[in-house]
Amino acid sequence: MEKCEMFCYQCQETARGTGCTKVGVCGKRPELSGMLDLLVYVTKGLSCVTTMLREEGKEVGKDVNHLVTVNLFATITNANFDRDAIIARIKETLAVKEELRAKLVDPTGLPEAAVWNGNENEFDSKADSDEVGVLATENEDVRSLREMITYGLKGLAAYSKHANALMQDNEEVDAFIQSALAKLLDDSLGLDDLVALTLETGKYGVDGMALLDGANTGAYGNPEITEVNIGVRNNPGILVSGHDLKDLEQLLEQTKGTGVDVYTHSEMLPAHYYPAFKKYDNFVGNYGNAWWKQKEEFATFNGPILMTTNCIVPPADSYKERLWTTGAAGYPGCRHIEGEYGAVKDFSDIIAQAKTCAPPQEIETGSIIGGFAHEQVFALADKVVDAVKSGAIRKFVVMGGCDGRMKSRDYYTEFAKKLPNDVVILTAGCAKYKYNKLALGDIGGIPRVLDAGQCNDSYSLALIALKLKEVFGLDDINDLPIAFNIAWYEQKAVIVLLALLYLGVKNIHLGPTLPGFLSPNVAKVLVENFGIAGIGTVDEDLKLLVGETA
């Protein structure tokens, strides 16, 4: 492949479905893309060292595990656009790697990524070299599998990071992330080895999602059916987006009694479902829709916005001064709030700014219902089972995943509208914004859209499916009256997909396009072994997945 200014195809919106080569559709420039590639490269190098240390019987500290997961999280689409912040992470990673390499009894056999220790003035040339970046792997099938695993690991790292913020760790998950990163540098691994590693990534994806589920529910209780306000009050407000519940908790604590209201945006909506957050009387509701609507919705909100994780759209000048980041997120020119795991972050400056701002402009009124995570659905199990047995519910369609700005995603709105009235939608992630405000009604009191929460909460969808399998006494999860029509955008969706494949789920429809990182041969393996398919027309897919057209 000819040399290009950058190369990235990790998200669904990648240019032409093959790769961004001049500037990312997400907004990242080549000079940033190169540093993100280099950060992944040096993190693989560090992981070779930590994996070798573990093989020698030595412990690797939580601080190193956290460094790896945050590094990977920072490279997820729309997470961090701040080149200086990424350079700082590269420097830290190299320093930690050198310190740990000195502890190895026998460092022979380490790859170049584990040995290289360049200075900052060498970073750009290294990033542009043949050893770094997606295209460093020449064989397209090997490249495809390596990148699918890498993106799965990025998603797994994101889930781990959120659990870590709540002081929950899983050493086995961390060790796997690092050993898998090391294996991605091992040219002796063939296609069969990489396919096996892909499914192993899915296994640890299940473990990572279980870790986060336990961390969230342990801290905040099990989500429960909740009616969430989508209107506004006449107080200044702070809008919180992203996925990190610990950041939200600390902000709510610090805004108590200040006269400043707090609203959620996009993926933070499900915070309202947790019992622990209902005690805050200034936690008003959800403002707006999915992440890609930021430019217009952040402008009308009027107050400051806190981005706790990924899903940043390069901000307009009209609100850039009001955009704040924390954690793995970052954007040049926007203020960043620091804070280590276990520490209380200082949100006083963003609260002070909020007090100077006008209240949010109302863009809609009413409410939406969610909170159908696994324990809430289990509580309704008898009712659900009776509805299935009576024929009132004919089928469930899992429509979790991501939303995005492509016109082709209107498919999911139309699909939801045309679903027969005896079909229930199970969802998690921001994909729900394509249909969660439609008047789809209920079946015997069971809403036809059951929202389990964030993309982080996709674990609930797996548990619900496994519970139904148990209740109906089935041997195979694929015998359930459940179809999968999933939208994807970024790397957390990849780990969810790999987790579902590991659990044995077949015939998943994935859209609006298949990933650009799937080579024809790898795509063929997924089709033949797992029944992975793209989407067709709405009417075609209704017939295929549900058995009839509307």
TrEMBL record:
Residues recorded as bearing Cysteine persulfide in the entry: 402
GO molecular function annotations of the record: 4 iron, 4 sulfur cluster binding; hydroxylamine reductase activity; metal ion binding; peroxidase activity
Cofactor: [4Fe-4S] cluster; hybrid [4Fe-2O-2S] cluster
GO terms of biological process kind: response to hydrogen peroxide
CC per GO annotation: cytoplasm
Chief place of localization: cytoplasm
UniProt keywords, alphabetically: 4Fe-4S, Cytoplasm, Iron, Iron-sulfur, Metal-binding, Oxidoreductase
Catalyzed chemical reaction(s): A + NH4(+) + H2O = hydroxylamine + AH2 + H(+)
Residues engaged in binding hybrid [4Fe-2O-2S] cluster: 243, 267, 311, 402, 430, 455, 490, 492
Location in the cell: Cytoplasm
The protein's Enzyme Commission number: 1.7.99.1
Function: Catalyzes the reduction of hydroxylamine to form NH(3) and H(2)O.
Family recorded in the similarity comment: Belongs to the HCP family.
Protein name as annotated: Hydroxylamine reductase
